[in-house]
Write a structure and sequence with these properties.
The protein is mainly alpha-helical and about 80 residues long. The chain has a domain of about 30 residues. It contains 1 helix and 2 strands, in the order ββα. The protein has a two-stranded antiparallel sheet. This is cAMP-responsive element-binding protein-like 2. One of its GO terms (cellular component) is nucleus. Keywords: Activator, DNA-binding, Nucleus, Transcription, Transcription regulation. It comes from Amphilophus citrinellus (Midas cichlid).
């Protein structure tokens, strides 16, 4: 009998799990990793800048509303 196994109607050959890892040049892989890390840091920096601007904008809006409320309360009574 052969070593092939029948699984869900398909013949599976032993020792053939997934793709074989490609022979990747280590320097190229490290450079891609570094580039990916640089891009990740740049995205993170932009995200934090956006969030800081958003917080600043909301704080200004809160101050303006507080001033408006103090003005209306002051005139009410």
């Amino acid at each position: 009998m052969d070593d092939n196994k029948m699984v869900a109607g398909k013949v599976k050959k032993p020792g053939k799990r997934g793709r074989k890892p490609a022979k990747i040049d280590l320097k190229a892989k490290l450079e891609r990793s570094r580039q990916s890390a640089r891009e990740c840091r740049a995205r993170k920096k932009l995200r934090y800048q956006y969030l800081e601007e958003l917080v600043s904008s909301k704080e200004r809006a809160i101050c303006a509303l507080r001033e408006e409320l103090e003005m209306s309360v002051g005139f009410g009574g």
